[in-house]
Amino acid sequence: MSQKSSFSKLKNMKILLAVVGIAAILAALDVVEFYMPMEFDDMSVNRHSLYVHLDPVWASYPSNIVFDVTSTWNKSNATMDESQKYVPFDETIPENYGKNELDTMHDKSFVRLSHQNNQCQYNFQPHHYRSTVDVIRQNIEVAMGLQLTNDPYNIQFPNVKNTSYSDSDQESKLPTAFAHFIPICMINDISNFDYSIRIDDKTIGANLYFVPSISEFNSYKETGTFFYYTESGCFAKNLISHSGTCSNVSKDSGIMIIIPDDISRSLVKTTVNIYEKSV
At the top level of its lineage, which domain of life is listed (predicted)? Predict the structure, then answer.
């Protein structure tokens, strides 16, 4: 056997051992996470997704939209009772996986797969909500400049405007666009929030608004108009990705995401992160 052949085999063996070692470490971390969910002692986390299929009445048909939302907020300092303790994800309950619902917006119908974990349940966490894959993906995106911090709870995206068309064109698209309302989780009457949003369709921009209540979302669905927080940092328009801070947010408020009915992809993913800052 030649020296070159032996060296090649040794090199391949080292690569194989390295791959096996990394796989073993990842598997071990997964086991640890399964029995010990990653979380702060003073924070609650809720993560949910919403899948939307637009019917033929939409200009974007047959496109689909996925909202991936993570909310992190302060726990109460009061003594927890049984209803406030960690709620594990029960894989045996079909309702936890959601159900198909028919809804309308601007007299245009759509179907959504609505998960039952999109309310502010105390410390609700879907099974394995912070997986090793999530951590690795975040570190890769930080290295690529797609995320700004390594904090797995307060995720920040760079500020990138949509350049496919102007802000005035974006405003003209809003009365017939699609919107999603996200309740803001908090224990105080007033609080401050960091947030970030990213959409993976680079041909359109998304708008984000902090609104006083879900009533504004219902108003938008029926009339195309609504009121929102006008303070600096509490809204962002015509963006691809964005991070900001909205202060003095009152209880029962929420975030409304609006996406124009001009989607160019078969599936559009919108990622939203909401983080309550320590007061």
Answer: Archaea
Answering whether pTM is above 0.85, one says: no
Q: Give tens-digit pLDDT for 175-195.
A: 999 999 998 888 888 999 999
Dihedral sign, CA of 157, 162, 167, 171?
negative
Residue 210 CB neighbours (<10 A): 27
Tokens 């160019």 correspond to 264
**b/e per residue 245-256 (b: at least 16 CB within 10 A):** ebeebeeebbbb
Cis peptide, bond prior to residue 37, ω within 30 of zero: no
Domains of the chain, by residue range, sit at 1-36, 38-276
* DSSP string of 179-213, one letter each residue: EEEEEPP-SSSEEEEEEEEEES-TTS-EEEEEESS
Helices (H), 66-199: 132-144, 167-173
